[in-house]
Every structure is written in C-alpha cells, then in structure tokens.
Amino acid sequence: MEIGVYSFGDVQRDPATGKLGSTAQATRNLLEAIQLADQVGLDYFGIGEHHTYEMPASAATVVLGAAASMTKNIKLGSAVTVLSTDDPVRVYQQFATLDALSNGRAEITAGRGSSTESFPLFGHSLNDYDELFAEKLDLLLEVNEKESITWSGKFRPALNDALIVPRPDAGSLPIWLATGGNPHSSVRAALLGLPVAYAIIGGQAARFAPLADLYRRAAEQAAIPGAPVKISIASPGFIGDDAAKAKDLWWTHWHAAMSSLGAIRGFAAPQRPHFDQDANGGGALFVGSAIEIAERVVNLHRSVGHMRQFFQMDLGQLPQKDFLRSIELLGTQVKPLVDAELGIAKPQ
Amino acid sequence: MRNDDVKTIGILGAGRVGTALARRAVAAGFDVRIATSKPAADIAFLLEIMTPGAKADQAETAISAADIIILALPLSKYRALRPELFAGKIVIDAMNYWAPTDGILPEFEATSSSSEVIQAYLPDARLVRSFNHMGYHEIDEEARSPGDPDRRALALAGNDPQARRVVADFVDRLGFDPVDAGTLAASRNFAGGTPIFGAKLGRSEMQSLLEGKARALSTAGSDA
Ligand SMILES: NC(=O)c1ccc[n+]([C@@H]2O[C@H](COP(=O)([O-])OP(=O)(O)OC[C@H]3O[C@@H](n4cnc5c(N)ncnc54)[C@H](OP(=O)(O)O)[C@@H]3O)[C@@H](O)[C@H]2O)c1
User: Fold this and answer.
1) What pLDDT score was predicted for residue A268?
2) Which residues pair with A110 in a beta bridge?
3) Average pLDDT for residues B155-166, to the nearest whole number?
C-alpha cells in the first residue's frame, strides 16, 4: 500500500516563545517536509488549498514544482484542488507542468473543498456550489483526454479547438475525485471512471467500507474500459516515539484546530474523551506509535481495500520538528510494517 | 396518532444524513422509504448497498405512505417540496442552514430558527426539529439501548405537542434519549453556534443547557 502525507501548509507556533510563525516561513517549512517525505521513502505528498493565515498554502503547484526538483520518487499532488473556483484549463496546465518537471509524478485531486474562502476571493457565488463543480470537473476531464478541445459551458468562455499544453508524457494525468462520505459522490466517481479519494476526518473509519463497496460495484456496472478503480484515504494522523506522548501532544494541536474551525462553523469544541474515542481502535484519527498506526492502517485496509493512505499531521500550529519526526517515523517505521503485512505496493 | 401506530418512515434525501437515519430506522424495525429529487430507480442500487431493507420511492408516494417524514435534503432545496403533500403529517426537520454550501438565503439570515421558516412554508405539517445537531456518522455510531450510561441525548422542538411525543418515541427507538425543548422557536437553542451543536451530551447535560438557554431566549442570536 502507498503511504503519504498531506498538508494545508499550516503556520507553526514556536513552543518556546508561543509566537506564530510567518506564512512565508510556513511555505518553506512545507517544502522541507516534502523533501524529507521523499528521503524516507514515502509514496505521496498532497497539498490542500486554503486561503487563511493559519493555512496559507494557496498555490500548491508552485510549492510542488520546487519540490519536484528536490525529490526523486514521491508522487506530488493536491489534497484537494478546489476546482469549483478555479479555471480547469489553468489547473491542468499547472499540473501538467509539474508532471513534466517531476518526470511523471503529478496528480490532481479535485473536490469541492470543505472551506469556501476561495468563493468570494475569486468572485464565485456559493449559490452555484453544485453546478460549478460539475461543470468544471467535466472540463478538466476533457482537457485531460484531448490536447485540443472544443467546449462550452456556463461559467467560463467557450473553447474552440484550443491547444492545452504541456502534455503529460504518460498521455494523461491521474485525476482523483475527492469526497467526504456522500454516497452520490462515490457513484459519480465510478460513473466518470475516476479513482476516489475519501477524506475520513472523524468517527469510525470503517464506516467507509459500504461506500467503497458501492463505488466498486458501480464501477463494475459502468464497466469503463481502462478506468482505474482505486481508493485512497486521507485522514488526520500523527506518529510519535511514544504512543501516549504522541496522543497528548497532538490532542492540544487538534483541539486548537477544531476549536477555531468550530468557532467559524458553529459547532462545539470537541472534548478529550471524544478525541480518545477517535484516536484509538477503529477511529479516524491515526495518532500514536508507529506500531499502533501500522496496525490500524492494515485493519482499515482489510475493510475498505484502499491502495493509499495519507495523513494530515501539521494541524493546529504543530511545531516543525514534531511534524518532521512524524514524517520520518511514517516512512522508516510505519511503511515497512504495513508493507510486511500487506506486501510491497505495486507501482500503479 | 399513537406512538405504536408509527410503522412507516419516509425520508427525503439519500445523502449522508438520510442514509444514516434509514439504517437506524430499518434496524429499529420500521418500514423505510427513501426519495430524492430523482426517479426511484436512480437510487435503488445505492440504497441496496447503503441501506439494505429500505425501499427507493418517489417523494409523493413516500410522503403519503409515511407516518413520519424526515427532511434530510439540503436546506437550499426546500422550495422543491410540495406543501400540499405534507398536510397533517408529522415531519422531522433535520436540516441546517449553512451559507457556505447552501448559498446566502435571505430568509434564513433572520434571527428566527430555520425550522420556523420551513414550518411557514409547510403550514399544515406538524413539524418537529431534531437530529440536526448531531454529525451524520454519530447517528450510526452512537446509538445505544435505553439506560446505557453512554446514551446520547437528542433535542427536539415543535409547535404540536402530540407530534413532539411521537417524535420523542421515534428518537428513543432509534437509540437516543429525546429531550423536549418546547416550541419550534426553541429550536434555535440547538442550532449551529449553540453549545449543543456538535457536542456529545447525555440527557441531564442537555436538559440543563436547554433550560439555561430557554431563559435567555430573548437574547438568542441568528440561527445557523
Ligand atoms: N452531514 C451532516 O453531518 C449533517 C448533520 C445534521 C444535519 N445535516 C443537515 O441535513 C441535510 C442533509 O445533509 P447531508 O449531509 O445528508 O446532504 P447530502 O449528503 O448532500 O444529501 C442530500 C440528499 O438530498 C437529496 N435531495 C436534493 N433535493 C431533494 C429534493 N427536492 N427532494 C428530496 N431529496 C432531495 C439529494 O439527492 P438528489 O440531489 O439526487 O435529489 C441527496 O440524496 C442538510 O440540511 C444538512 O444541513 C447534516
């Protein structure tokens, strides 16, 4: 199975002074994290799209482009690209450029995103939430198929035999559809012939097993020749040298992140028992020692059958040194343990 | 209607909340029908896998057959509902207003609760708000038998006291402790932005939060 990391490029807080770092420093820290992830043998690094001081990674492909020249094997992608408020042609050009620079390691994960800062920022209306995404995904997939396209829709000017370059060496880019548990989206991914990326950020992770089953059976029915029927899972996670210390440390950062999200979205801040419920056993927060996390990933694999799992570690201003140590443990300890249990991931 | 007359549950919406409630209702022994805006045949396959035992239906027939109807569609779509179909029916409103995905809807930006807007739109429905303050996966994962010390509370509010009793019994049979918050106006006390929204609470904690809130009702802010 492939193992990886994703990040929203969060700013860090200096544990000694309590001071919040700059957004520029956070961007450089992100690049450092990707380099390390490659060095320790991880398979995937994804960057999300946010536009806030706490989460300043607004231009993923620029960071990934820099990472492309400093890394050898790791696949580089988005987690997720908020496609609804971007131009699919531009998104494609950027990722195709990344693909060229990284010798075929670029991937796009398209989603609606759970945050909506990009709507006012780029002049889109939330009233078009569903329609925007459907149209933009349609265009993105078409650009991936054909070098020259003729297309028209509601939200961007029509294209008449337009050449979209550069083109990926492999002919097309892997494009994943991201979803957070709406069954219609799993069916949609299958009908479009796309691999599906599940974001499982709370509760019991194995509840996605029926969705995975729905996705696979819908894909079987759709029977699109050559369509990659694959599932990846993005989940919060953090690995420390000691399980209890890792949980205590990460609880404070997760709590900080959830409290500020809750203040925006109107939900009550979670309590420690809630965290402990999700951070152990079958819960969706993969926080603990390397042995424990490897075991939990393998268990989840047995019910969902995903081929990749990647973790968001640097939530809530986690210090960079803890982020880096967690990446190191993920690559040097968790991944070999998972491989030993499930067999080495075949190149996909 | 007496509580034990409730046999058929009609759910509008086959998304996260609709399918979770359907699974619990099937498990509790109810006859469950689910409808979306699409033809029944379009969701039959999805339901077969996600909610075994529940039947795909059209909205109109699901509503007429149902003893309790649950609104589990995006709030932004409420005007697609046909008010005449809901006359005299007990209806659970599980919807929340969340502008980032619903878009800005001026009628929900006011200080009344979103359920009061829905009740005004469905004037002859016996509307009860509930299930809205719990994450969809918790409906599946946190249902417990009566008396279990970890059993969670679910608030409900509505203007028809008998409908509230019927819904309270339904909530109980699905695996949660019902807490009656009073009339629909009180449903703002467990909407987004309140300490109840998203919190894991037992019955007595819920009761004391609601009592505290009820006294402060006049100062309540906007509903989310
Ligand atoms: N997600 C949560 O954890 C949660 C928790 C509590 C309450 N809520 C509230 O519950 C509601 C549903 O949320 P969700 O997360 O389940 O949404 P969702 O996953 O997007 O599902 C919405 C469902 O409603 C259907 N629908 C749309 N228009 C309809 C219509 N006119 N008649 C009948 N069905 C229709 C959709 O199918 P078609 O589009 O194919 O018709 C889909 O099956 C929202 O108001 C939300 O605020 C959500």
Assistant:
1) 92
2) A81, A177
3) 98
Q: Give the CATH class of B3-223.
A: alpha beta
Residues of chain A with pLDDT under 50: none
- Is residue A245 a contact partner of residue A216, using CB atoms and an 8 Å limit? no
Pairing of strands A175-179, A148-151: unpaired
Nearest chain A alpha carbon to B15? A182
**Alpha carbon nearest to ligand 1 atom 43, residue:** B14
Residue length of chain A: 348
Q: Ligand 1 pocket: which of B12, B33, B37, B156 to mutate (most atoms <8 Å of CB)?
A: B37
Closest CA to B156 of B134, B124, B125, B123: B134
Whole-number pLDDT of residue A112: 84
The amino acid occupying position A123 is G
B158 or B217, which is more confident: B158
CB pair distance less than 8 Å for A218 and B198: no
Q: Is the pLDDT of residue B220 over 60?
A: no
pLDDT, tens digit (0-9, with 9 covering 90-100), for A79-134: 999 999 999 999 999 999 999 999 999 999 999 877 788 988 998 888 888 899 99
User: Residue B213: its pLDDT value, please?
Assistant: 75
Average pLDDT of the residues in B6-28: 98
Residue A282 DSSP class: T
Q: Does residue B19 belong to the interface with chain A, where contact is any CB pair within 8 Å?
A: yes
Topology adopted by domain A2-342: TIM Barrel (3.20.20)
Of B11, B12, B16, best ligand 1 pocket probe by most atoms within 8 Å of the beta carbon? B16
CA dist B101 → A114, A286, A319, B97 (Å):
9, 28, 32, 9
Strand order across the beta sheet in which B8-12 lies? B55-56, B31-35, B8-12, B68-71, B90-93, B126-130, B153-158, B177-182
CB A32 within 8 A of CB A320: yes
In three state form, how does the secondary structure of chain B look? CCHHHCCEEEEECCCHHHHHHHHHHHHCCCEEEEECCCCHHHHHHHHHHHCCCCEECCHHHHHHHCCEEEECCCHHHHHHCCHHHHCCCEEEECCCCCHHHHCCCHHHCCCCCHHHHHHHHCCCCEEEEECCCCCHHHHHHCCCCCCCCCCCEEEEEECCHHHHHHHHHHHHHHCCEEEEEECHHHHHHHCCCCCCCCCCCCHHHHHHHHHHHHHCHHHCCCCC
Q: Which two tokens stand for residue A269?
A: 């801040």
Provide the token pair at A107. 């991937």
Mutant choice from B11, B26, B43, B46 vs A, greatest count of A C-beta within 10 A: B46
CA distance A182 to A203: 15
ipTM: 0.93
Q: Do A265 and B98 touch (CB under 8 A)?
A: yes
In sequence order, the 6+-apart residues with CB closer than 8 A to the CB of B8 are B30, B31, B32, B33, B65, B66, B67, B68
Check if the beta carbon of residue A344 is closer than 8 Å to that of residue A43: no
CA B125 vs. chain centroid, Å, equals: 13
Q: Residue A145 C-alpha to ligand 1 middle, in angstroms?
A: 32
- pTM assigned to the model: 0.95
Instruction: Check CB contact under 8 Å for A266 and B46.
Output: no
